Amino acid sequence: MFGLANPQRFMSFTRPLVPVLWVVAVALLLVGIWLSFTAPGDYQQGDTVRIMFVHVPASSLGLMAYSALGISSFFALVFRHPLADAAARAAALPGAAFTLLALVTGSLWGQPMWGTWWVWDARLTSVLVLFLFYLGYMALRSAIDDEARAARAAAILGLVGLINLPIVKFSVDWWNTLHQPASLLREGGTALAPVFLAPLLTMMAAYGALFLAVWLTSIRTEIVRRRVQSIRARMALEA
């Protein structure tokens, strides 16, 4: 793993891996969508239960992407490694997209279940804060012209945002909230019937493969951008 911290080795290793991830992500998405639409309606929620197959994976990937951003920020800040900084930067946009999708689908699911589009309970509020951390990270990087200073400032913000991850995860256990507790991973096993578990796990695997495909593609693009920028700077000095 640490050998891949070398940009050249990383580019060589991921060159054949990225197309495979894209193919796997598309295939799993197609299977997951088919399973989601062929699953029966819930006896209480009816067809609105299908939102779960989009909402739950999006929520999980929002947390996973920020974990990748935060850990990469740590290595970038402590070890000053440019590849770690590229990884953190590349995780921000897809992570924000997954978190926004979780917020939107959560509102669509909450309206028929709770009778309202939004409540300021612990889970929804902490996920909104997570989304704002993503936006703040991207805005901070864009606001500072000096890339080195922007990377350091954004890395610090990325590390601070890690504090919010356990709050999002355990908010339904720590506070009284409308949001239902965990159904998939909990003591005593899952509460989901197999007919709902299969499409949910398939969609979670699809989202995971999609994130990895987007993330690695973005890191590769960032490495190429920095190489081109370095070549241009060297040519300008020589001229």
UniProtKB/TrEMBL annotation:
Subcellular localization, as worded in the UniProt entry: Cell inner membrane; Membrane
Superkingdom as given in the UniProt entry: Bacteria
Family: Belongs to the CcmC/CycZ/HelC family.
Gene Ontology MF annotations: heme binding; heme transmembrane transporter activity
GO biological process terms on file: cytochrome complex assembly
Principal location listed in the UniProt entry: membrane
Cytochrome c assembly protein domain ranges (all copies): 11-179
Source organism of this protein record: Brevundimonas subvibrioides (strain ATCC 15264 / DSM 4735 / LMG 14903 / NBRC 16000 / CB 81) (Caulobacter subvibrioides)
Annotated gene: ccmC
Pfam families (UniProt xref): Cytochrom_C_asm
GO CC term (a single one): plasma membrane
Membrane topology: Multi-pass membrane protein
Protein role: Required for the export of heme to the periplasm for the biogenesis of c-type cytochromes.
Keyword Phosphoprotein: no
Keyword Lipid metabolism: no
Bilayer-crossing regions: 20-39, 59-79, 91-110, 122-140, 152-172, 192-217
Entry keywords, A to Z: Cell inner membrane, Cell membrane, Cytochrome c-type biogenesis, Membrane, Transmembrane, Transmembrane helix, Transport
Protein name: Heme exporter protein C
